[in-house]
Structures are given as structure tokens and as C-alpha cells.
């Protein structure tokens, strides 16, 4: 049952004057953290594509489900992650030695296939593609002093139908492959291309 804030632990009040915002700032305030960046990209997807997600469901088969039931998976990557410039005590490193340029040829989006999290018997537990479309989002800013996840001009996106991933047969895909086969999209272009593709897909499915 929920802990009453008037209870005590080791003689101290439980969470005195604490708020959910305090918790969010502590656990999720760093948008360049690998995990949090992924959550941010999953939140950004519905904002650009018109999904109906009211909250993040960590075990869902798809990150975005449109009102018309089109499923979209969002994968993200970045040249900068906080572990490259923040120490384990949470304080900035005096002199980060890492250069994001070292990773340009190694950026890869993994986890394209997964077991069915809703109906285990549906696919026999064999990993497979769960979405109709995949969005690959790269935070491409290499200057740490300018890095800002909320600046959408620092992002590039790739819109990929699942049929293309099936054709490739990949369980993961590199940025190099995406750049060779698909157009790089701005946030605004993603909204236009994505919504158009979703509308055509749903019209075809409902015909």
C-alpha cells in the first residue's frame, strides 16, 4: 500500500516536502543519458506523428499506436551520451577525453526484433518485427556546449517501413546503412512523410 508521508523511517519523516518533480529531476533530468534519451525519442514520436499514447508503457510491443492502430517503433542514438562527460558522482568531468567524431562510423540501432510482450503464445517466443513502421532518430550535435535535446534542428530522422527491414533481414541497422538507403528527414519532414505514409497504410488496410 502507499506509504503515508507522515510515517517515519529510522526516525526521519518519509520524503518530507518531496514531489514527483524532484524525482523526475533526479532520475530523468539528463536527456543525454542513454536510457532517458530513448524515452525522450519515444515521447517525441507521437508528438510528430499524431500517436495516441497517453503515457509510456514500457512493455508495449510498439512505442506509438495511432488512432487507426498503425504501430510505430522509435529507435534513437546520439554522438554524445552523459557517461562521456559526467563522472559517476554526477559531476562534470574536468577534461572529457572522448570525441564524438570517433563514433560516427559505429552508430547502430539495435533491438529491431522482440518477443511478443502481450501474447507470448502468439509468436512462440521467437523475436520478430512488431511494428508497421520504424523511426530512427539521431541527435547529431557534436559540440557538447551546444547540445540540446529540445532543439529539433539537432536531430535527423529516418522513416522506414517494416517491409524494408524484413527485406534487409537485419536485427539491427547501422546509421551508414540508413543513410545509404533512406532520406534524412528533419522533424517537420518526419511529420509530413510519416503522417502521409500512415494515412496511405490505413486506407489500404481498410479498403
Could you please describe the fold and organization of this structure?
It is a single chain. The protein is α+β, with helices and mostly antiparallel strands and 207 residues long. 29% of the residues lie in helices and 15% in strands. The chain has five helices and eight strands, in the order ββααβββββαβαα. The strands form three sheets. The protein has a four-stranded mixed β-sheet. A two-stranded antiparallel sheet has the order 1-2. Strands 5-8 form a two-stranded antiparallel ribbon. The radius of gyration is 20 Å and the shape is globular. The relative contact order is 0.14.
Radius of gyration: 20 Å
Number of strands: 8
- Strand arrangement in the largest pleated sheet: 3-4-6-7
User: What does the main sheet amount to?
Assistant: 4 strands, mixed
End-to-end Cα distance: 49 Å
Structural shape: globular
| Overall pLDDT level | 84
Q: Quote the beta fraction.
A: 15-25%
Helix fraction?
25-40%
Q: Please report the number of helical segments.
A: 5
Low-confidence residue ranges? 1-10
Return the structural class: alpha+beta
H/E order of the elements? EEHHEEEEEHEHH
Amino acid at each position: 500500500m502507499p506509504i503515508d508521508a507522515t510515517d517515519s523511517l529510522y526516525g526521519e519523516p518519509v520524503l518530507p516536502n518531496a514531489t514527483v518533480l524532484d524525482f523526475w529531476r533526479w532520475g530523468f533530468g539528463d536527456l543525454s543519458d542513454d536510457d532517458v534519451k530513448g524515452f525522450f525519442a519515444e515521447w517525441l514520436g507521437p508528438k510528430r506523428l499524431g500517436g495516441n499514447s497517453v503515457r509510456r508503457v514500457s512493455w508495449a510491443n510498439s512505442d506509438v499506436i495511432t488512432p487507426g492502430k498503425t504501430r510505430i517503433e522509435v529507435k534513437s542514438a546520439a554522438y554524445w551520451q552523459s557517461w562521456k562527460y559526467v563522472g559517476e558522482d554526477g559531476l562534470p568531468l574536468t577534461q572529457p577525453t572522448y570525441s564524438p567524431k570517433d563514433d560516427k562510423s559505429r552508430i547502430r540501432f539495435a533491438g529491431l526484433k522482440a518477443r511478443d510482450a502481450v501474447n507470448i503464445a502468439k509468436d512462440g517466443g521467437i523475436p520478430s518485427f512488431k511494428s508497421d513502421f520504424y523511426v530512427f532518430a539521431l541527435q547529431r550535435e557534436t559540440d557538447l556546449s551546444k547540445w540540446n535535446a529540445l532543439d529539433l534542428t539537432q536531430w535527423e530522422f529516418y522513416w522506414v517501413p517494416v517491409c524494408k527491414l524484413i527485406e534487409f533481414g537485419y536485427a539491427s541497422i547501422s546509421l551508414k546503412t540508413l543513410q545509404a538507403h533512406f532520406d534524412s528527414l528533419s522533424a517537420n519532414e518526419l511529420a509530413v512523410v510519416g503522417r502521409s505514409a500512415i494515412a496511405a497504410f490505413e486506407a489500404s488496410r481498410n479498403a
